[in-house]
Sequence to fold (966 residues):
Amino acid sequence: MVSLELLLAVAFAAALLDFFATRGYAAAAAGIVMLAGLLWGAGPSAPYLKPSEFAAFVAGVYLAIVAYSHFYMRGAERLGWFWGWMGVFFGSMELFLLADHWVLLLLGWAGLDLASWGLILTYRDDDEMGFVGDGSRAGGISWLWPPSSSAIRSIVAVEVGTASLLVASAYMAVHHNSPFISGWGHADDVAAALFLVAAFAKAAQLPFTDWLLTAMSAPTPVSALLHSSTMVKAGPILLLKLGHLLPHWAAEAAFLVGFATAFAGGLIALGQREPKLVLAASTASYLGMITAIALENPKEAAMLIYAHGFAKAALFMAVGHGIHASHSRFPQSYPLIAKVAILLGMLILVGVLPVGALAKSEAPLWTVAVSALTVGYLGKLLRLPATNDWEPMWIPYTALVVVPNFVFIGAPPPVVLLSLAGGVLAFAGEAEVLRRRLYLPVLFDRVMPSAFRATWRLAAAVDRAVDRALQSSAPLWRLAVDLVTVVDWLVDAALHDGLVSAVRRASAQVAGLKLEYYLYMAGVAAAFIIAVVLALGIWS
Amino acid sequence: MYSDVFLLATAISGVLALAALRLGLPAALAATAAMLLFLVPGKGTLAVLPYVGEVAVSMDFHKLPFVVTSVILGLLVAFYSPPYLRHLGAPRWYYGVHVLYVLSFVYIILFENLIFVFLALELSIITSFLLIWYFGYGNRRFVALLYFVWAQVGSILFLVGVAISGTLTADVFEAAGVASLLVLLGLLVKMGTAGVHFWLPYAHAEAPTPLSALLSPVHVGLMAYWIWRLKEGAHWPLDALFLYGLVTAVYGSLLVFRETDFKRALADSTVANMGLLVAAAAIGNKSISYAATALLFVGHAFAKAALFMLAGLYIVALHTRSIGEARWDRHLLAVSVLGFVALAGLFGINLIGKAYVAAGVPPLLYMAALAVAALVSTAVYSFYLFNQMYRAGEGKVEYPAEMYAAVLAAAAAPYLLLLVLPLWLV
Fold:
């Protein structure tokens, strides 16, 4: 029996190998080994890990994306960087999924942050392919994000979640006296709140949504991976892992935030002209849907994770095919096969094709409205003309929207057909407020940086003031030194000068008294008296 | 028995240190390598002195990470130094003083007698003072004196506190009231936590860079070991200390944003990290506290040393200390990613150290929020600095290979150490 530890070691070793070899063959091998091992029934050989139902799914999607990347990234620069971080991304997601020890969970979780940050930096800052936005100005900011801006936006946003997860899981490990997640009992309110923040930040839920859109600076295969099976999916999967430990109100909070994001994301997607941004906002929307029901109906949420994963990976790769063929971030046409895949992906998302239908079998009614938005924004892509481009990169993504339908089979609930009416939205224009992503970027690029700048400037000013005060207290030290000098001089003068000269003066005074003359006279007088006394004595 | 090992190691490294005053690098490397002898585990008494009592030394599992990190970094920095010292025009005796400085780190940890810990602190202050005084930047004599006075204040407060407590050995240390506060204050001044940190950015930035690479992460960080070690007998208000540590972490992180100078930014970052270390050492549960302190110390030491050495590489190669003027090729990009990510605590053993610090957070909303703020802010400034450097742009930089090798080794250490992960997954 293969052990999960070994599979993870292979995944990370492959990342290192690819980093140096810059080829991506190790990534393919690691994907195959992982998938085969998991399907073979690999188990943990130590209690640190625990099998996860999502592990094979992630490996399968990863494998398809790796195959696609071999075509998409051909001729690109920085391939070692790209493949190395892709490997870390994959390994971290698997580690996160399989971890039962809280520290391993954190390593996987943080590895995702790190790898996504690295992957966003793949394109150089002066490479147009890495830009997000059209360069217009609105709300006091420039709507153009080069990769380095996107990278720091993403890491700052998700780090809030990671820090929250650190505190919450550390607290649980200590409080329940068990490093193993399976040994934890109920979370109290503070821990539950932190877990929710962690999941929301990772899954790009409101108000964290916007980092996900600028993360589009990364090459398309990265987006395909990040949006389908890794990174953002870690948010709801965390909720699935811990759902049974969270208090009742957590489900309500998750529902509210998820519900709001589902609609906000769908509407933002309708307003975007850049196809990758359409899909990114759509991810926020679907992650909202999954987050909203993750704690109420975990089984349903899990099925949605699969269906959305297959569809979104394929959608990104199909759109990427158009970008690759047209060398533009705003392709005006798509290869025919890409359009077919987009259509199939859309039908999975809304729940018409078997895998999507299975996922939607227990979905609440409001999700139909989200699906209607989906048909609207994906319909816009489908309206563009088709071209004839059959570069083999179509195979992996088409497989992703076809094959799962033969594995996960459900019959579409009739109500989902209503969502197809959303197709009329495909003919609507882009409202300014939606095109501007509800002005969330203004919050992240103007309001918060200004507030933060004011804070650090205040700290720096206080610090400098105290520092200056300490340094300008030097004259005080000088004064103290002078004071001591004076006192010392006084004492010195009193002791040494004063005493000596007093003795000298006394001595001179005494010397001036002609003491010897008086002594002589006294001696003579004494001798005379003694002589008289003696004479009288003898006489008598 | 251990006392013999101790004396032997002292004799060898001491003689070689003196030799290094004349012979330079080879003797310095040999002297530092000889310090690995101290790692033999054991406990022994060197002498019993009137008033001072038993002068015991010991090496145990808890001291290991601190001593090993000091010695390994001592070696790496010595190996790194020659091109830098040529750049400075420093004479060979620099290496001798460097070795004595590293030796003082070992002593700070090994001595069980607190009076001798004080003496070891004095050795570290004097040696580092000399190097700043002769080889520092800017207004180096002013900075050297500033550093000397603050450091003396710290170590003397520690000494006075220990003396008043009347318990001069770490194992039986027991202090209350003024004595316990003086010991704490002394250690905090030496660490440069918020409020008593004013000397730190000057000293760490203006010191010659190979010295900064030891001064900033190791010298100040070692005090965390003593906070951890003495906290039981000292009866400090640990909850307040934990809170203070987190506040320092946030405050120090904010200070980083004011800097354009690479070395000063790293120095401010040390203030933030000392905050995390104080919080780590102040956790009530002693084994969690130890894991947090040791992991953060080691992770921060390697990451910070790597980044200081990187700053030094830029000083030699590009004659600049401004982070906005640094250029990178793919090799330099790789080490800066490794260094800044570890410093951020986003990965490597630094992440695990942060996780264990988080384990000390009491279940109160405001404490949890402060902890999140501390963990986020210490991460964000690292990425901010990296971003500054990244945006400075790609360029051709020519630098000596040995400098790069040392930076790479230090920057990779926090990740390689993850391989011994099973040690603390219990």
Notes: Residues 271 and 434 of chain A are 5 Å apart (CA to CA). The mean pLDDT of chain A is 92.
